[in-house]
Write a structure and sequence with these properties.
Two copies of one chain form a homodimer. Chain A is an alpha+beta fold. Helix content of chain A is 26%, strand content 29%. The longest helix of chain A is centred in the N-terminal third of the chain and has 22 residues. At the A-B interface, strand 2, strand 3, helix 2, strand 4 and strand 5 of A face strand 2, strand 3, helix 2, strand 4 and strand 5 of B.
Chain lengths: 594, 594
Amino acid sequence: MVMRMSQLFVRTLREDPADAVVPSHRWLVRAGYIRRVAPGIYTWLPLGLRVLAKVEAIVREEMDAIGGQEVRFPALLPREPYEATNRWTEYGPSLFRLKDRTQADFLLGPTHEEMFTLLVKDLYSSYKDLPLTLYQIQTKYRDEARPRAGILRGKEFVMKDSYSFDLLEEGLAASYELHRQAYTRIFDRLGFDYVVVQAMSGAMGGSRSEEFLALSEFGEDTFVRSPGGYAANVEAVHIAPPPAVDASAVPAAAEIPTPGAGTIDALVTLVNESVPRADRPWAGADTLKNVVVTLKYPDGQREPLVIGLPGDREVDEKRLEAAVAPAEVEPFGEADFAAHPELVKGYIGPVRLADGGHVAVLGLEGEAKVRYLLDPRVVDGTDWITGANRPDTHVVHLVKGRDFAADGVIDVAEVRDGDPAPDGSGPLELARGVEMGHIFQLGQKYSQALDLRVLDQNGKLQTVWMGSYGIGVSRAVAMVAEGTCDERGLCWPRHVAPYDVTVVSAGKGDAIAQESERIATELAALGLEVVWDDRNVSPGVKFADAELLGFPTIVIVGRGLADGVVEVRDRQTGDRQSVAVADAVAYIAEQCQG
Amino acid sequence: MVMRMSQLFVRTLREDPADAVVPSHRWLVRAGYIRRVAPGIYTWLPLGLRVLAKVEAIVREEMDAIGGQEVRFPALLPREPYEATNRWTEYGPSLFRLKDRTQADFLLGPTHEEMFTLLVKDLYSSYKDLPLTLYQIQTKYRDEARPRAGILRGKEFVMKDSYSFDLLEEGLAASYELHRQAYTRIFDRLGFDYVVVQAMSGAMGGSRSEEFLALSEFGEDTFVRSPGGYAANVEAVHIAPPPAVDASAVPAAAEIPTPGAGTIDALVTLVNESVPRADRPWAGADTLKNVVVTLKYPDGQREPLVIGLPGDREVDEKRLEAAVAPAEVEPFGEADFAAHPELVKGYIGPVRLADGGHVAVLGLEGEAKVRYLLDPRVVDGTDWITGANRPDTHVVHLVKGRDFAADGVIDVAEVRDGDPAPDGSGPLELARGVEMGHIFQLGQKYSQALDLRVLDQNGKLQTVWMGSYGIGVSRAVAMVAEGTCDERGLCWPRHVAPYDVTVVSAGKGDAIAQESERIATELAALGLEVVWDDRNVSPGVKFADAELLGFPTIVIVGRGLADGVVEVRDRQTGDRQSVAVADAVAYIAEQCQG
């Protein structure tokens, strides 16, 4: 059936939407594929819905190919299962919560680990039933603080989520690998330029996890990769700690006056003047910076945390958020300093030097009440300049292990271009991407919490090993658009395009209209999806719309008709061919199907 | 691809679910098509989801065939549009309401009139853009007070809703008729035994509306039909009022003592003794019963309402609810009687006889404060026995129009088998059904409230005429099951069955397994959807499961194999054929595709 452009429910817009910051958002709105209802909430218009359906079909095919069985859970879910795993609380403000008319608590599902675990527990009981992979393609909800970029990060979105169930840990590894391969095929078919990186498990729990990131300068995820093949989300980078240092020759710690040394740079300049080193000048990396923040836990409790790291590095906010989740990070304000007089703003350090010894201000020992975590580079024997816990005063030669200790390690310093890869595979390069897929080895977190056990070959109950695997399906539509659009609009790959071809009647007169309709109808009869632009507007408007809408093949039936030819344009390459009218249908069909 | 039963995610259950009251619910749960998550909230298991997808495909085809264009709105919707039409309030407790992290109000869409109206207003502006029909197949939410019968009435369900937009009222009539025909084709294809009845528009507003009711003894809707073709939901029955009566010969109204006449029967017995009629005995139909209820409006206001109707009929609760919607009906309790001393419980009547005249207690005149509506049978000139507004006292010969008046008419008396059809087409017959589809001529309610206007041929703005049309898609799955199941389980029509055929290996041994697999594989290669029951359980269990699961064709590969035959059973007719192994695939394919 030929869709007439005069009847297609679409309006192309000449202006960018006011809130558009990324190209896919701009073009999907301007081309009439999606329409905003509220921040982060969009309607799929006919063209957009057709692309979504094609992406869904690719995902479904590849999930079926690895033996996945499709189910569909409700989005409206009772509180209890999420209470059992503590996610009702841990999800924090990103979870949409509501009550029904009986005041019972419900949520709108952001992800369905609990429900799948309970379903399998409900129906299965034996090792013979495993392995099992279930999936759904379903609407999900997250109350995003900063919905952005159209359908790239919305409050309501379509996800494919799947879950694997295995008797043994090795089975989980195999199911995980199957998903990894299926995801590779899916993203290959969608035509993404993507990279697979090690990832944090975050609120999911579990052990191994990887992300499929589409490369994009607009990406919210920063990742690193090395020439030797290491690749990780920066949140998941665990640096290789250097070996301990022999500090037997380091002089005793001593206080020095440092009035006005408000920055690391000023401090370094000052110590190079007042206590110069013999071997080399002091550098920012010789200072131990102590950053204090407040952690807010899901139960509402707050706690100060001091992070000690080399002074030439900043704390990476996203690495910190990932490391302390589900706690949230808040600033440590004036009132907090007032409540902790032991922390002298600008001069925080792990110890205070007192008559013949050290009083621990931070960390494990003595009276210290504030938790203190150190960057992994701060190994035993390292020699630091740091705050003395007195105004205008620092300590030099404070040695880790000799003069101070900490409560533990926290690996949240910024990762920089050129840093060595943790696995020794060379210098790291930083890049940005959009998370398209995420695969998790959940392990037994959910099966333990919800008591999913099956009988093994010996009649013994075994806790099931689970994996969970997600693909942002609506986000993928945006990313295909993002990766293929140009300065004239959308430019769909053939296998996800809403229509294969548009036949443009470029000019007035019955001959043009009749010939356009004939070509469109014959193409449709061959199984192609065809739009006929039959509108009573100028050829220029039609050409611009055709390029904006992004159908792969554009057929122009216009002035050339007098000479017995039509023009066939390839939207992506820009190639234009004059084709004899008699050959047109066969030629176009070959272009579209070839 | 052949699905092996040993791998299919399904567990058949031998016991009925505790809350099952209708066969479709029982069988869909026992056969592992759906699984309950919470009251009115279900998960679609693989088999159920396949049926749902097939029903969706039929609906989509027929909507496309009448030029409908598919879109998809979010389920999470902002409050404002529903505020503009007052439905945020009018929907009452059936609407799921929630807040996002900024405390903005949202709802989960129960139906999308507002959103479609705004979308068309957003993109279209000219008569040239019309007519237009948009539809979606989407998950919807209603906080049902009494979710029941599995997926038949749930809190989360799948609906097809469509909306038509026309410049003129005649255009709306044409769009409505197109939908009516499409719905007829859809329900014919689904194999329903259904009836199209006149319906109330309810909270939708608008004028003409009809329901497609599947006939079912478990239906919540009661409808009537006549031999002459009248058919209506009882809520929508408007009785034909009888002509006015000449009351010139009726004696003056008079009070009579009626101690202990607490029921209509007792009253009739008593008046036949104390004030017998000359022409015939008094009957219940001679008494005017006055029923008092409280109306509760969406804004929280309450108001008493007295309904006067012939004493031989009851008020029909559903007809009353429909008539007063969006107000709700509550009992008029002791405290209410205390607040209205003019209403003497058991002796309520429209007037109190006083010295030489009547004091209006109910209705328009004088001091009356309580609203009074009359059954349409109570026409001018009719002669009644009714309450005297004094304890133990009634009035006889109280004549409508002569002795009392009312504020209006309310047609909420029960409809009875044998009542005349309002259009004179014969006696009514009562039956029950389940609402499968509902079509509405909305008129201009939403386009006026949300200002959807387009320019007409003369450049004048015209308010658009709208229709709205719904089909319960998930409910249709239940009703197909309901209409086809038998005492052994489900029994799917071929075009919605999750699989076409199941090949059962009935017995041990390699020969049976190999031949089963070969037949299954060859059938799958022909494009059939095949389950091979390869499980290591007894033939008896497999036969019972095959019948419970309801695949249309069952192939038994068992003892007959030694004689070179397999058995082919038709699940619906029970027909069993022995077929030579060599002919089996061709024979089965013909059965399935024929």
